[in-house]
Amino acid sequence: MLKLKLSIVTLASGLAFYFYQGSLATQAALYGGCIVIFNVWFTNRRMRAADEIAKIAPGKEVTVFYVAAIQRFIYTLGFFILGMGGLLKLPPVPMITTFTIVYLTYLIISKE
Questions:
Q1: What is the radius of gyration, based on Cα positions, of the chain?
Q2: Which of the residues 4, 5, 32, 96 has the least number of beta carbons within 10 Å of its own beta carbon?
Q3: Would 15 be classed as within a structural domain?
Q4: pLDDT in tens, 7-44
């Protein structure tokens, strides 16, 4: 349900950028939102792994959290490099704006 809400916010942001700046900005906005959705998926996956590790070897789950945080940072940075300067050459403002909006939505929704 969380990913569905984030997808809706991503699509709404992409639609807004489509009317404001055109199709290339829409692609950048959707790409930025997908980075957040990937991060949420990755975090949930690591949380389940940490839960399993906590059952087997208590105390080792903290290491999983630290490694996951480093991996998320590297993946996010890599996706931004790929999107802005790498192969895709998407405009940075729609990408970063949508990333920020969707991530803030995630923070607000996850408190519920």
A1: 16
A2: 4
A3: yes
A4: 999 999 999 999 999 999 999 999 999 999 999 999 88
